[in-house]
Amino acid sequence: MSLHAVRKLKVPQDLANDFNNQGFLKMKGLTVVESCTFTEGSKGSMFLEDHLLLFVLEGIYKVSFGEESFIVKKNEMVLLQKSILVGYEKSGEKENEYYLDYMMFFLKDELLTEFINMTDLQYNYPSALIPVSVRATNERLMSYIQSLKPYFKETGTLKEGLIRVKLLELLFDVADADEQFLYQFLQLKRTVRKGITEIMEQNVTNPVTLQDLAYLSGRSLSTFKRDFQAIYNTSPLRWIRNRRLDIARDMLLHTFASVTDICFTVGFENVAHFSKVFKERFGVAPSAYRYAMLNQDGENAD
C-alpha cells in the first residue's frame, strides 16, 4: 500500500501563510478570505477552527465530509460547522477559462451570539445540526459580496466597527434569503451531548484542540475533561498522542508510506516532534523501528 499525505490545513490560521491570489479582512470574531485565481483543479483537506460561510462567485467548490460530497456552484453558498475536517476540490470551469472566485467568512461563536441576540428570533431549531448545508443565493446577496471586494484593497485603513457592521448586514441578508439557513445558525449554538468515545475515535487523527473536542461532544471544557477521565483514566492529550503513535506503528509495518507522510496522516504537524515522541514510546525512531521489524520478519521467515 502506498500513501502520500500532506498536512491538514487548520483554517483560517494556516491561510494567513499563503497570500498568493488571496485577500484578508480580520477583526475580533471574524476572518474573511477572498480568493481569485485560474485553476483546472486543486484539492486538499482542512480542519475548521471556526464556522465557515463560503460563497462561490465563479467556478466550482466541492466539499466532502464523511461519506458525503457537496458541490457548491456559482451563486451558491455553503455553511460548515466548526471543529470538523472536510476535504475540498476547487476548480474554474472550462468555458470561463478556469476562473475561480470565492469568498470565505470564518465566524466565531461570539459573533454568531451577537447576531442571534440582535435578531430576537424564536428558537425554532431543526431536528439536528447539519454539518454542511448548501443553499442558493439571491441577487441581493451576490451584490453584497461584490460590494465587499473594494475593502480588501483598504485593509490598513478600515475601522473594525465598519467591518463588523458589514458582516452583520451579511448575516441578516443570508437569514432573509433562506429561513432554514437562518435556523442552522441557531443550531450552531445549540449544545447536544454526544458520546465521548465516538467523538475521540472520529477525530483522533484530526488537528483538534481540547476546546474542539468539548464543543463536538456538547460539553463545557471542564465537564469534557472530567467525563473523559472517568472513561479512559488518562488525559485527552495523552490518549490522543498514544493512539496516534499506535496507528503510526501499524502504518510503518503495513504500508510503504514515508515517515513524513505517516506523521501528517496520523495528525502530527511536525516530523521532528513525531520522531521524538515515537522514540520515547517505542525506544527507537520510526525509520529504525520499521527497519528492525522488517529484518526481524525476514529472519523469522528463514
TrEMBL record:
SMART domains, alphabetized: HTH_ARAC
Stored InterPro entries: ExsA-like_N (IPR054015), Homeodomain-like_sf (IPR009057), HTH-like (IPR037923), HTH_AraC (IPR018060), HTH_AraC-typ_CS (IPR018062), Tscrpt_reg_AraC-type_HTH (IPR020449)
HTH araC/xylS-type domain location: 194-292
Record flagged with keyword DNA-binding: yes
UniProt feature coiled coil, ranges: none
Leader sequence residues: none
Keywords, in A-Z order: DNA-binding, Transcription, Transcription regulation
SUPFAM superfamilies, A to Z: Homeodomain-like, Regulatory protein AraC
Protein name according to UniProt: AraC family transcriptional regulator
Source species of the chain: Paenibacillus glycanilyticus
